[in-house]
Specification:
Distance between the termini: 28 Å
Strand content: 25-35%
Structural class: alpha+beta
Helix content: 25-40%
Order of helices and strands: HHEEEEEEHEEEEHH
Radius of gyration: 16 Å
Number of strands: 10
CATH topology: Nucleoside Triphosphate Pyrophosphohydrolase
CATH class: Alpha Beta
Length: 194
């Protein structure tokens, strides 16, 4: 298969997924970080990736974390200086969910973000543009979250059916979060695991 054919197939797949999940692919404004954000299934350059989050499946159920503010979220977080995407994902899964990745993650896509802030969140991060990478993968819940002092303080980790994960996430987030879970379920199904 040629590179041109690969790019054409990827474009067709991107258009198909954008039509299936319009809220996820719609332009967004994240007021908490003053970001204009746009999701795409096209993966960004590694140098732009500042945050990695995972829709983790434990026996077909989606792993969610609840922090001390009663806020439900997907495990993941900010890359440290010179940290690889893989190392960040392993660290964040342990810190926030007490989970271990079983095999390679699949990548859903990324939100490309542009901020109005004059300085980056951390000095080594790209600025004013960056990307939040979203993945899915099979995980094992093995221990309590390690809860480092400089991170979210997780008080509960729960593996729930995908519909329940959508309900819990939508209680505190925009509509696109539900579609993010649906996209992970769909790509997992296409991989023969759902």
């Amino acid at each position: 298969m040629t590179d041109t054919t690969d790019r054409t197939d990827a474009s067709v797949r991107s258009a198909e997924l954008a039509a299936l999940f319009p809220a996820l692919h719609a332009p967004q404004y994240w007021s908490w970080g003053r970001f204009d954000a746009q999701f795409s299934t096209e993966l960004p350059p590694d140098a732009l990736v500042t945050n990695i989050h995972l829709v983790g499946f434990a026996d077909g159920r989606v792993v969610l974390c609840r922090d001390d503010r009663d806020h439900w979220f997907l495990p993941g977080g900010t890359r440290e200086r010179d940290e690889s995407v893989a190392a960040c994902l392993v660290r964040e899964l342990s810190e926030e969910a007490g989970a271990r990745l079983l095999g390679e993650p699949g990548w859903l896509g990324a939100h490309r973000c542009r901020t109005e802030d004059p300085v980056p969140y951390r000095p080594w991060q790209p600025h004013p543009e960056k990307a939040w990478l979203w993945g899915w993968g099979e995980v094992a819940l093995e221990s309590a979250p390690t809860n480092p002092a400089d991170g979210e303080q997780v008080v509960e980790v729960r593996a729930v059916p995908p519909a329940e994960a959508q309900r819990l996430l939508l209680a505190g987030h925009d509509a696109w979060w539900g579609e993010l879970i649906e996209l992970a379920v769909e790509l997992r199904r296409r991989a023969g695991l759902g």
